[in-house]
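Before the break, one more example. Copy the sequence into your notebook; we will annotate it together after we see the structure.
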Amino acid sequence: MRILPPSLAGALSGEAATLCHAWLLTRRDGTILAFTDHDRPFEAGGHLFEPGASLETTASEQGAGLASGGGEIRGVLDSERLTERAIRAGLYDGAELRRYRVDWQAPALDFLEDVTILGEIRRVDGRFLAETRLPFLALDEERGRRYTRTCDAELGDARCGVDLSGPPFRLAATIAEATAIALRCPALEAAPEGLFARGRIRMLTGPLAGAEAAVRDHPGGGWLRLWQALPLAPVPGETLLASAGCDKSLTTCHARFGNAARFRGFPHIPPADAVLAWARPGEGRHLGRPLVP
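Here is what the structure looks like once it is written out:
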């Protein structure tokens, strides 16, 4: 049984209902949008809730215990900040949606009804349609260390320790020419070939501002090739932020980043074929020497 906060309980005991729904939509980049199905805007929790929202949640699949279920949210979100281009760019995929019940006469975010994670989001016939997942989905993610020859840290995180806050491993650049899958930035021409391979870009301006993409290849000449095509081809003059990548090998960690002391892999583990190998007369290998240079 859930206990209502006193303010909401008081609103329910009155002669006229003054309740409405309020939704907080938090994107993965930290951008927060606030909506309500009330006919006037109001402030609560430091956010201004825009009117014009009408959302309904379909029946969701929920298993026993902590199994992650799924469902769908459909409805209308009438906001200039929620654009078709932003949806196509995937900026709202994986966003967190919190639904509150509030008294619009004295709005406060003290009664949270549910929290869902948005999957793919799209517009169908002018309506907002999104797959949903419960927060329990995070419990299905892999946890703990992996014992592999390659590093299991993410470049730039606390375990890695490489500083990606600025040059030479993070550079702002202006696009000179681009397609949806490749782009060229003159500011990246001086960067060593391969520095941004397996890295990421984040668009800073234009319709795709805030969108991120993984870099497949950095062949030099200021060119970056992406793993997946962007929803829209960037326009010359738009800017982006490029972050270096790493193939997670000890050689790259030492030669490119000077970070071998914090390497989070196990490069001395024999490869899988070593398990099936046997000693050969006169071979004379592995006489106490390291398996990697």
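The mean pLDDT is 80. The first helix runs from residue 6 to 12. Try to locate both features in your own notes.
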